[in-house]
Amino acid sequence: MSFTIDKKAKKVIRKALKALGKKNFVFIMHGGSFPAAQGENTGFGTINSNGGKKFIEYAQDLFDAIQMGPAGKTKTSDASPYTGTIFSNNPLFIDLKELTTKKWGNILSVETYNEIVSQNPNKDKNRTSYSYIINKQEEALTEAYENFIKLNDKKLNKEFNSYKIQNKSWLDNDALYEALVIEHNCDYWHNWKSETDKNLLNPKSNEDKIEYSKRIEEITKKYSKEIDRYKFIQFVLNAQNEATREFAKSKGIKMIADRQVAFSDRDEWAYQSLFLEGWSLGCPPDYFSKDGQAWGFPVVNPEKLYNGDGSLGEAGILMKNLYKKMFRENPGGVRIDHIVGLIDPWVYKKGLKPMPEQGAGRLFSSPEHEYLKKFAIPSVEDLDTEYSADNEKRVKNLTHEQIKKYGRLVEKIVIAAAKEEGLTKDSIVCEDLGTLTNPVASVMKEYDLLGMKLTQFTVPTEPEDPYRCKNITKHCWVMVGTHDNKPVNEWAKSLINTHEGYLHVKNLVEDLFSEEQNPDDIIVKMTKDADFLKETKLVELFACEAENVQIFFTDFFNMSETYNTPGTSGDRNWSLRLPDNFEEMETINLPQILKKAIISRGKKFADKNKNIIEELDEIK
User: Cα separations (Å) of 279 from 52, 181, 567?
Assistant: First the structure.
């Protein structure tokens, strides 16, 4: 059952959220998943489009913010936003339609735009067409750049030149890489034949500096047009992003960014002198992977993060600039993916598996390791050596000074960047799902950081499970699932008439129906009724004490497909979009869910909010 989302309904919903102690109600949807306006589906979503703005208007007065996915430029061969660039944004988020208008001097022809829309292989499906649009977008933006040069508009030229100057520190590097991609006909620098080009920004001697400087000058001259085109594309995207932020602000909606733990291939090339040579970032062996997860991402060299006096080193300055840019562009804050990889990362030797037996370990927690010991914060005496190197409890003793050392990056870079951009540390959303090492848990507590509680991860046999409703505390973000989980629809269906489902239901009834006179009858009904189980799982989000609630777009709109399935690859991942006719879709019945959340708090609380319950009941 759905409901009509009009102004009256939104007003009542906000009253209910306030009564339940919710400070933030946030919608999660990655950029490519935004719907298109009618006749404007190019094959990839963007919040900058008319469809994106239409969704912002839909979200107005209902949500406080929209949690986006990583916004970096992705690989031609991989649609995952979690391998995108750290500074350059994804050109696919440029709204081509706007470039056909007077605002941009009609630098893109209507014919080109219409052709892209008409030939989109998924124009009638709620799926991106990644391999199609990544080429078509490039062609369209090349046409737009050439027409921009011909147009020679004084105002646009001035704005473009100003943008290039203001962003020179990272834009020159990224644009140079693009030129080398053309030179080598390959966007993966490890496969380039020229050792010089592989190391252009990483000279090891004065002779290298002289040689590389000449090569940079040669490439810059040879591909001057392509380099300028790259910068122009980033300029256009930045202008559209700024306009969209202002539009969203006028509707009371903020954006929350997503900072992935990875550095892209392009970033590794540009800043390779700042990474630990011969090491990669990954995950240790666990239930899902007996050999661990070999992500292959570069590891920031700890010796480059800070200087001897404790001030930020070259790598520290780079990372702080990255976070400052993200907080500046996203006033709603920044979600940090895999906070463990920032505080207590698991690293392994390139070419080997991320297993302790093959030399892998925690970068800052391995005082017994032949190589990693020089970065260790605890001593061998601080370890419980009965546990293996990958065990979260291995570091058993931590002084306050050691916790502060583990937290230096968070304090001096992330929190400092937020404050300098006018935000508080509560604008930092830490993805701390799963098992945390003792150092990470200690840092989270020391700095009172907002972590996540994902209710779909509840282990029903554990009474004190932190993801269970009764155990969720105020100071956190709660959600039923993220981009890597089954939609709550499918989660509920998978548990019907199963013993595991019974255990989940039993806990939910204990936590949410404690004052009911017939709890056993409710248990029996819920174990057989997927819709009832799904609704109750959503009630749990709002009934728990958490002050901040997030909901993924597949859950809110009752969708059944999973956005991304970890450990798999292919076009099904990262391609799901919100259908263009989303306003006609059946959503979760939020008024009734909120009503049940209020009632679940007990008779005294329900009586206090009787008027809100009645108003929620009136929404149809």
Answer: 40, 25, 22
